[in-house]
Specification:
2 domains, D-Maltodextrin-Binding Protein, domain 2, 13 strands, globular, 18 helices, 40% helix, alpha/beta, 5-stranded mixed sheet
Length: 433
Amino acid sequence: MARGRSRRALGSVAAGFVLAGTLAACGGGDSGGPPTLNWYINPDAGGQAEIAARCSEASNGAYTLSTSILPRTAAGQREQLVRRLAANDTSIDIMSLDPPQIPEFASAGFLAPVPEDVAERVTEGVVRSAVEQSTWEDELVAVPFWANTQLLWYRKSVAEAAGLDMTQPVTWDQLIEAAQEQDVLIGAQGARAESLTVWINALIESAGGSIIEENSEDPEQIQLGLDSEAGQRAAEIMNAVATSGQVSPAFSTENEDAGATGFEGEDAGFLVNWPFIWSRALAAVEAGTMDPSVPEDYGWALYPRVEADEPSAPPLGGISLAISDLTDDPALAYEAAECIVSEENQAYYMTTNGNPAALASVYDDPEVLELYPQAPVILESLDLAAPRPQTPYYNEITVGLQRAYHPPASVSADTGQAAEELISAVLAKEQLL
């Protein structure tokens, strides 16, 4: 049972749901051995498992940190964790959480409180946006681990031919015009997936608005900003990109990986995407499947602006560490979490797995700067980045957005209002997604 705290089933999880089969209890290792802390991680290139081994050794026998891999998609990760936590599964000690899930888990009573001294240590020197997306109701409820953001990637040869000064901010309108003049592709994520919500949120935030204008724990009191002036401008840009004639034929199914593939081709021009674009290209060169001249033509800049005189609000992602309210030893779990997010481990994770650190000092690391010459721009982007809507009802909102705004070529001046009506009806339990 939760330690004296209310545990509510999540809005989209059936009450009384239990897992099939027997759930494993928190292991204590062999008799007389150190206790085992189970860390449920998102799939990566092995970096979290290596950090777990490092922290186990550094604990000097205080604990052994074991990892269990969650499904690849954010939705799949959420589903598995929610099912286990709702069924009072005590095998979970630490979770690598996608930040939009944090308010939902915190509101449900699934997360152990962060001690004040721990909160002070794990937020010192951390980028503002990573702290913000690990916070719910003015309290830190998870530990920032790594913080991702999207950049504007461009082919230097194309930008030069188009006469764009990429040392200065550029707008979406300028990119569309340049792509049409040079007959090159402009890439974004048009698939009906979480990546579409990421794009919508960045456009609305960059236009000065928010998907949620007035937040509330009462779903029927949430006020949406999709039909606002900022929402209308975001819809206009989304449609303009999708109907520009300069997107791939499969744009409505294009995810981050497909966008990266397009940017590697001969027709590449501009792309908004995460920093993995760079490490992916270097790996291809090393494997002999890409000519070195391709990444040599890569340039990077801050996310495009909606309006020339207003800074952009780039997408924000990453992972935060949450401690389960059911863990047998929350103090030990937080000790392990602090080890995981140490400066040394964040630098290791960025240089080996390509995931940007949440700790600003990592961006001064010589090895990081050597591997990622765009590191200063990533840090600047993280300072500007805006989280996706922070609400316990995020799942309902993101699925509603993906229904209303897909395909992007169909988005119009009426889409915002239609999306508001759909999501409001879902939140009021008057309609199902």
